[in-house]
Amino acid sequence: MNTKQTKTSRAKNNKGQFTPKRFDTKVGTIEKKYGIDLGVKSNMKLGNYLKQKGYRSLSEMLKP
Questions:
Q1: CA angle 17, 35, 10 (to 5 degrees)
Q2: Residue ranges of region Disordered (predicted)?
Q3: C-alpha distance from residue 64 to each of 17, 36, 41, 43, 61 (Å)
Q4: Distance in angstroms (rounded) separating the CA atoms of residues 35 and 29
Q5: Whether this model's pTM surpasses 0.70
């Protein structure tokens, strides 16, 4: 899993913060979008993955 070098193309709000990603998004969608392999089943929900790994958000997980 190499998430630290991934650059994001996510939308930002007018304060420059990333818009939140829905936690019911499938991990497979995230893997395809960012070109990463998180090492879990693609039908796992993002929220469950983040909780399991101790991340508060997708942005935190993707930070270099």
A1: 15
A2: 1-20
A3: 16, 14, 24, 25, 9
A4: 10
A5: no
Angle at 22 between CA 30 and CA 61, to 5 degrees: 50
Question: Which helix H or strand E contains 49, and what residues bound it?
Answer: helix 46-53
Contact 63, 4 (CB under 8 A): yes
How many Å apart are CA 20 and CA 59, to the nearest integer?
9
H/E element, 48 = helix 46-53
Give tens-digit pLDDT for 4-63.
444 556 566 677 766 666 778 999 999 999 999 999 999 999 999 999 999 999 989 988
